[in-house]
Write a structure and sequence with these properties.
Helix content: 25-40%
Strand order of the largest sheet: 1-2-4-6-7-8-9-10
Number of strands: 10
Structural class: alpha/beta
Oligomer: single chain
Order of helices and strands: HEHEEHEEHEHEHEHEHEHH
Strand content: 15-25%
Number of domains: 1
Radius of gyration: 18 Å
Largest sheet: 8 strands, parallel, barrel
Bound molecules: 2-acetamido-2-deoxy-beta-D-glucopyranose
CATH topology: TIM Barrel
Length: 299
């Protein structure tokens, strides 16, 4: 694991605040961007099924590489075609839906070579997607709510530095939200060090493609153990990350009735329960999963 062997005071205070905090019901967050057939961003937000949308992915960055955004069939970033998403982003935010940029993904090319590299990536993200300015903003003038770290490759170094540099851009005027999408085995191989900073507002743990911590054959013990570990040792709101259909992942899909009658009851009493994350809007369209679970998730 990266760097730290003991938790910082800031981290411990964040955990204590999370543990004593009220559970005001859950939210649903979804990934949008990797399938052109999943409807527009504006319609995604207008469905009222989601509280937070992650735009997936900025899949090339770091190590001096020119960053590259990929939004599949939705638009072509290199020709400036994605700037039209600004009005969608603004309409989402006007409805109270947060829109985050997800960096990484399972098939990206990224890693951070040093703290200075992390600083440069933070500056790039600020100028191109957050409150800063650049002549090459891929998504136009809209100011995103924050950055989601979906780190599943490269190295485990300097993600803590990136989180610190990004958090320094938060102001009383506009907060820069930080999210992370670790795998369910605790601690996460890629993001474990970054999560120890206690700087993340949302942690959507991927309880799929990870057999040792999934719900399986009606047995909740493995999922429950992992959930308890995540919620007792990580700051921020913790989400149950799930595939929205059997086709969305190799394993880990939970039928609606099992989720609403068993799994949610076992996790939604945690003080830092955040809700459910779904991969992805496309698969959710196929099954109607979020429509079926939302009243249970929100409690
Ligand atoms: C990208 O260009 C195509 C073709 O002109 C258009 O249909 C589409 O709406 C554009 N996308 C965005 C996000 O502006
Ligand atoms: C880090 O990124 C650079 C640039 O893409 C690449 O050449 C290098 O192999 C990567 N290192 C690791 C460990 O992934
Ligand atoms: C859902 O619940 C049924 C009935 O308890 C059980 O047979 C089935 O294995 C469960 N599904 C999963 C994916 O665990
Ligand atoms: C917990 O989940 C159950 C079952 O899905 C739901 O009925 C209840 O309202 C939820 N409670 C909270 C506090 O979210």
């Amino acid at each position: 694991m990266a760097s730290k062997s003991s938790a910082s005071p800031v981290f411990l205070i964040s955990v204590i605040l999370a543990l004593v905090g009220n559970n005001d019901g859950g939210e649903i967050t979804v990934y949008w961007g990797q399938n052109g057939g999943e409807g527009s961003l504006a319609n995604t937000c207008a469905s009222e099924n989601y509280n937070i949308v992650n735009l997936a992915f900025l899949y090339v960055f770091g190590n001096g590489q020119t960053p590259e955004l990929n939004l599949a069939g939705h638009c072509d970033p290199s020709s400036g075609n994605c700037t039209g998403l600004s009005s969608d982003i603004n309409s989402c935010q006007a409805r109270g839906v947060k829109v985050m940029l997800s960096i990484g993904g399972s098939s990206g090319r990224y890693n951070l070579s040093s703290a200075e590299d992390a600083n440069q990536v933070a500056t790039y993200l600020w100028n191109n997607f957050l409150g800063g300015q650049s002549s090459s903003r891929s998504l136009g003038d809209a100011v995103l709510d924050g950055i989601d770290f979906d780190i599943e490759g490269g190295t485990n170094q300097h993600w803590d530095d990136l989180a610190r540099y990004l958090s320094e851009y938060s102001s009383s005027e506009k907060k820069v939200y930080l999210a992370a999408a670790p795998q369910c085995p605790y601690p996460d191989a890629w993001l474990g060090g970054a999560l120890q900073t206690g700087l993340f507002d949302y942690v959507w743990v991927q309880f799929y493609n990870n057999a040792p911590c999934e719900y399986n054959s009606g047995n909740i013990a493995n999922l429950q153990d992992a959930w308890n570990q995540w919620t007792s040792s990580t700051a921020g709101k913790i989400f149950l990350g799930l595939p929205a259909s059997t086709a969305a992942a190799n394993s880990g899909f939970i039928p609606v009735s099992n989720l609403t009658s068993k799994v949610l009851l076992a996790i939604n009493g945690s003080a830092n329960y955040g809700g459910v994350m779904l991969w992805s809007k496309y698969y959710d369209d196929q099954t109607g999963y979020s429509s079926s679970i939302k009243e249970y998730v929100r409690g």
